[in-house]
Write a structure and sequence with these properties.
By secondary structure, the protein is of the alpha/beta class. It contains 23 helices and 10 strands. The model is unreliable at 1-36 and 645-651 (pLDDT under 50). Bound molecules: adenosine-5'-triphosphate. Pfam families: ABC_membrane, ABC_tran.
Length: 651
């Protein structure tokens, strides 16, 4: 038993527990109630997702109750057998069966009793199977429905939500919280059923057999419930402390292992060992504190049930031997006493589970509250009702007095930005780090919404376009492209599912990736590892470009798409891209100015403002920020402007 309990407890201390009682921060939403403020979240989740499987749930409940009740009957039959066959204290009779149907010969009566007891056990086993099948069916389908619905809701949320919420927290909801519900349904609910059914059935049989002795034997039930409630109240804050410490320990381990390269580079292994040992030591202290209370609970329950058993034995034995003691008046036979004693022992097991069931209920409610919290979220950037599709755009892009600040942050990242780009233009976007270049182009994809002004494609405000048609029209290669665990071909095909091998290879050639891909052990079928760890930064970028090219988009947005590629490869890619982007509007953010030197227009940003624009030559002639940046890059040090001359000057 202890094994089951300790496993159970350990399960709860997995990372999800870091979240118990906390809602997803999400960073950007302050209009939802706190977690747990929802009305009966557990009931809501069960009704919403379990409704279509309700018959299975009810069937399981009935089967569970009947199975537990049947298991209790043989103890009654044993008492009856003693009274009928050994002490002759009772006539042979079975409850609910007319006497006329019963045999009169002792052998037949004895055989019938043994047969009924056997049938009870067999029936209980069969019903237990039905219960397991039905409740697992219910729980597994509910788990699937909740997880997929929560995931769907998350997918519709805006980027800012994911930026404001730790991935671990989202994973916790999708995995641990959902699993918690499943476990509650299959294990705890069954235990709850077991407790209630046993108490009700045993109580009913005892009261029917001898209501006076029953009152004595059943007196332990309220005592056990009270002790369990006290236990739960005492252990709960200790569990909370352990959970909190698990969070710190996990964060410490994650940080350490995630940054193992840096740890090694600075030979800080001993320092990290100390930090982990200290976090683990705190965990040990808190865990031990909880264990001390937990292990005291079970002996107390045993002692109470043992006392109840002893009192029943002492009083009942006296009663059988010398007649009713004290105020008691009912007759009591040896067989009935045996039934009472067998039942008294049966209280112990379910009652020690009371604390666990209450505990699990709270966990499941907290898990349900967090699931509801996700479900209640609505996209902050929904499509308008009459959103139109962007069909075959020419690629005219205009920014009209665009201003933008990230949700939840104070300062504006873009301030009154206006420009227009003709269809098919190649536009370079340059400026010092943090100037707002990436943000500018994320607004084109409507990852965020402008605070003022408008971003238009072919005259359509991007807010009036369907999200799918807008993003399908734009091939986007981000600064740190993400590759999924899978093969090279699968990663390129991610842009267009139905792309055949020829299209994949063609895209890779244009992105300058074909050569290195064919050098990989399995060519296009080489698995790139999680996040593409088995590839170099430049190789990852080229695959990301190929992924954008395979979709054949009308516009391109390349955010530092070749920053990790050597100069020669970049020249090759640029030539290929120039051909490909000749008639498609292309935005290319670049720190390496040679990348955008030939652009039709170069937009120069500084501190969220468009400070210059023009061709390379025009901008050099202006002798402003662009000319300064260019001077830095071509290495004419004597021309280095003051702002780049010393680090202090750059601040
Ligand atoms: N998701 C975000 N939430 C809040 N602030 C952000 C977010 N992303 C960027 N910022 C802030 O917005 C500003 C502009 O960032 P942005 O990435 O657009 O600059 P950038 O010009 O592309 O820089 P770099 O050349 O270094 O990539 C920075 O001050 C940055 O800290």
């Amino acid at each position: 038993m202890c094994h089951r309990v300790s496993l159970n407890v350990r399960r709860r201390y997995l990372p999800r527990d870091v979240l118990v009682g906390r809602r997803l921060r999400g960073g950007v939403r302050d209009d939802t109630p706190e977690s747990g403020d929802y009305d009966a979240p557990l009931r809501r989740v069960l009704l919403t997702y379990g409704r279509s499987h309700l018959p299975a749930f009810l069937l399981g409940g009935v089967a569970s109750a009947c199975s537990i009740a049947l298991e209790l009957l043989p103890s009654y039959l044993l008492g009856l057998a003693i009274d009928v066959f050994f002490t002759d204290a009772r006539p042979f009779a079975l409850p609910l069966v007319p006497d006329a149907w019963l045999p009169t010969a002792v052998r037949a009566q004895f055989g019938l009793l043994v047969g009924v007891a056997f049938a009870c056990y067999l029936g209980a086993a069969g019903l237990a199977w039905i219960n397991s099948w039905a409740w697992n069916h219910f729980a597994q389908h509910l788990q699937h429905a909740v997880r997929t619905a929560a995931y769907r809701t998350m997918q519709d949320l805006e980027l800012a939500f994911f930026e404001g919420t730790q991935t671990g927290e989202l994973m916790s909801v999708l995995n641990n919280d959902v699993n918690q519900l499943e476990e509650f349904l299959t294990t705890s609910l069954h235990n709850a059923m077991r407790i209630v059914t046993r108490v009700v059935v045993i109580g009913a049989i005892m009261l029917w057999l001898n209501w006076q002795l029953a009152l004595v034997s059943l007196a332990v039930v309220p005592i056990l419930v009270a002790v369990s409630v006290v236990f739960v109240r005492r252990i709960q804050p200790k569990y909370g402390a352990v959970r909190e410490q698990v969070g710190s320990l996990n964060a410490r381990l994650e940080n350490n292992l995630g940054g193992i390269e840096t740890v090694k580079a600075y030979t800080n292994e001993a320092f990290e060992n100390d930090r982990v040992a200290s976090a683990s030591g705190s965990y040990l202290d808190r865990q031990w504190d909880a264990i001390r209370v937990r292990i005291a609970f079970f002996p107390v329950v045993r002692a109470i049930t043992a006392t109840g058993y002893t009192v029943t034995f002492l009083l009942g034995g006296w009663w059988v031997l010398f007649g009713p003691p004290f105020v008691f008046t009912e007759p009591l036979s040896a067989g009935v006493l045996v039934t009472f004693l067998l039942y008294s022992r049966r209280f112990r097991y379910p009652m020690r589970r009371v604390g666990e069931v209450l505990d699990d209920y709270q966990y499941a409610s907290a898990a349900a509250a967090r699931i509801v919290d996700v479900e209640e979220r609505r996209p902050r950037l929904p499509e308008v009702d009459d959103a139109v599709d962007l069909v075959d755009p020419e690629g005219r892009v205009t920014y009209e007095h665009v201003s933008f600040a990230y949700p939840g942050s104070d300062g504006r990242v873009l301030e009154d930005v206006s420009f227009a780009v003709a269809p098919g233009d190649f536009v370079g976007v340059v400026g010092p780090t943090g100037a707002g270049k990436t943000t500018l182009l994320k607004l084109l994809l409507r990852f965020y919404e402008v605070d003022a002004g408008a971003v238009r494609i072919d005259g359509h405000d991007v807010r009036d376009l369907t999200r799918t048609s807008l993003r399908d029209a734009i091939g986007y290669v981000s600064q740190e492209p993400y590759l999924f665990h899978g093969t090279v071909a699968e990663n390129i095909r991610y842009g267009r599912e139905d792309a055949d091998r020829a299209a994949v290879v063609e895209a890779a050639k244009r992105a300058g990736a074909h050569e290195f891909v064919t050098d990989l052990p399995d060519g296009y079928d080489t698995v790139v590892g999680e996040r593409g760890v088995k590839l170099s930064g430049g190789q990852r970028q080229r695959l990301a470009i190929a992924r954008a090219l395979v979709t054949d988009p009308e516009l391109f947005v390349l955010d530092e798409a070749t920053s990790h590629v050597d100069n020669e490869t970049e020249t090759v890619i640029r030539r290929q891209l120039a051909e490909l982007t000749a008639d498609r509007t292309t935005f290319a953010i670049a720190h390496r100015l040679s990348t955008v030197r030939d652009a039709d227009t170069i937009l120069v940003f500084d501190d969220g403002q468009l400070v210059e624009h023009g061709t390379h030559e025009e901008l050099l002639a202006q002798d402003g920020l662009y000319a300064d940046l260019w001077a830095v890059q071509v290495g004419s040090v004597e021309d280095l402007p003051a702002r780049f001359a010393s680090p202090e000057a750059m601040d």
